[in-house]
Design brief:
By secondary structure, the chain is mainly alpha-helical. The protein has one domain. Helix content is 67%, strand content 0%. The protein contains 17 helices and no strands. α6 packs antiparallel against α15, α7 runs antiparallel to α8 and α8 runs parallel beside α10. The longest helix is centred in the N-terminal third of the chain and has 33 residues. The two termini are 38 Å apart.
């Protein structure tokens, strides 16, 4: 074997290894964020940003190793790029009320964009999607189990060790129970959809259904009313899809078992206290009441009307809001508690229109891929992503999950996966079946060919 051939094989092996590192590096960062309190502290934000930058540099190195640059297109890249240009415009034309915060949040958005770009270039095969489905299901089950254990034995500290500086309603690894619910809204569809497909053995599907049931139960036990509404919307969408496709008795029985596990868990762990916890999801747990939320919404609209085109600047809501606040509170209003309103305030109509473009493109692209979701991993993964995205978009009307780096990063990557090209399938080797006639033709002696004689 020549040295050139050995070098080519070596390069291919290194390229494949780089692909593996990139794939699990991207999703490893996504799994890191929630366990690091949602990646809301400077050190964890740095890990997210630096990790995304290192992975992007590794991807560039892989392109150099391959000897060519291959860029895969995703229809979401265009609205994401326009949104980035709007942020740059705020800084260049000094529209932002506080450039420092705009730059800081812009760096986070840039990290999200890099993760989305890399996911488009590395998550390409169905076998990879199957592995990630298993990983995310196990991860969701572990987080839900931890949340249940913590709910039973909580001492008011994160991991029973870390005391939150500004209080909160701790659930799971998050200071704010609403953000735990937001994470679960995006993770629940992964095992739930797997349990309804033909992509795994019966035992695996049963385990996936039980896992999804426990995860749904923890959303209710967390006391997040926005989370409860979001997961109900997800289940209603899924039920409507199943009715439309006229799924059989087996599916109906599976859904019945799923709901029985959810109800049993709620009764066992929550008991009579569950309704009280839902009713008191406000003043007693360091949360804003409904009246205060309505005041913030009204004040936010006044902020928007002052700068309706490009807004006050990305990340500047907590800086500008005190000028418009019309009520007294001991709380520091750091977010609008409504992601849509905050987007209007910070990015104006242009930014909001870009978001609408992003969402419309996402659904129009994703819905086309879910035709045979029960038998193809590409359709199943896309449906799971769309359900999780739908839940968080509902929840965003009453909370600020998309201002939490861990949840926002996962949201944008799920959007990218849903809008990407279908996964490639492994090439099956087929045996050549030769007919009897062809065999006879092969065995027949060749016709004589007359050639001119050559004298030596």
């Amino acid at each position: 074997m020549s040295a050139t051939r050995i070098t080519a094989i070596d390069r291919r092996e290194r390229s494949a290894q780089a692909d593996t590192v990139l794939l699990y590096g991207i999703f490893g960062l996504l799994l890191f964020g929630p366990v690091a309190f949602g990646a809301v502290e400077p050190w964890s934000i740095f890990v997210m940003e630096a990790g995304a930058a290192i992975l992007f540099l590794l991807w560039i190195g892989k392109q150099v190793l391959d000897g060519e640059i291959k860029v895969r297109w995703n229809p979401l890249f265009l609205p994401m790029g326009i949104f980035g240009l709007l942020i740059v415009s705020q800084l260049v034309f000094r529209v932002t009320a506080y450039p420092h915060d705009t730059v800081s949040v812009a760096l986070l958005y840039f990290a999200y964009a890099m993760l989305c770009f890399l996911a488009t270039h590395t998550l390409l095969r169905g076998v990879q999607a199957r592995s990630l489905t298993l990983i995310f299901s196990v991860y969701g089950a572990a987080l839900a189990g931890f949340a249940l254990l913590q709910g039973i034995s909580s001492n008011g500290k994160l991991y029973w060790i870390r005391q939150p500086r500004m209080g909160g309603w701790i659930y799971g690894p998050y200071v704010n129970h609403n953000h735990y619910a937001g994470l679960m809204e995006m993770l629940v569809p992964v095992p739930l959809i797997l349990s309804l497909t033909r992509l795994a053995p019966a035992k695996v599907r049963t385990a996936a259904a039980a896992t999804a049931a426990v995860m749904v139960g923890t959303i209710f036990l967390s006391g997040s009313r926005g989370g409860m509404l979001a997961i109900v919307v997800e289940l209603v969408i899924l039920a409507a899809l199943l009715v439309k496709q006229k799924r059989g008795l087996r599916t109906a029985i599976g859904i019945g078992v799923f709901l029985a596990i959810v109800i049993g868990l709620l009764v066992w762990v929550g008991g009579p206290e569950l309704s009280k916890r839902i009713a008191t999801a406000g003043p007693g747990h360091s949360e804003l009441s409904g009246d205060i939320r309505s005041y913030i919404n009204r004040d936010g609209l006044r902020m928007f009307l002052k700068k309706p085109v490009l807004g006050w600047g990305l990340g500047t809501f907590p800086i500008v809001y005190p000028q418009f606040r019309t009520f007294y509170t001991n709380f520091f209003v750091n977010e609008a508690h409504n992601d849509y309103l905050q987007l209007l305030v910070e990015m104006g109509l242009l930014g909001f229109a870009t978001m609408v473009w992003f969402v419309v493109t996402l659904y129009s692209r994703g819905i086309k891929k879910i035709g045979n979701w029960t038998g193809e991993i590409s359709g199943a993964m896309t449906l799971a992503c769309l359900l999780g995205i739908s839940g968080i978009l509902v929840h965003s009307a009453v909370d600020f999950n998309l201002q939490i780096p861990a949840n926002a990063a996962l949201f944008y990557v799920l959007c990218t996966v849903a809008a990407s090209e279908p996964f490639t399938k492994p090439v099956r080797k087929r045996r050549a079946v030769r007919s009897k006639a062809s065999e006879e033709e092969t065995l027949a002696p060749p016709e004589s060919v007359h050639q001119p004689a050559t004298n030596f």
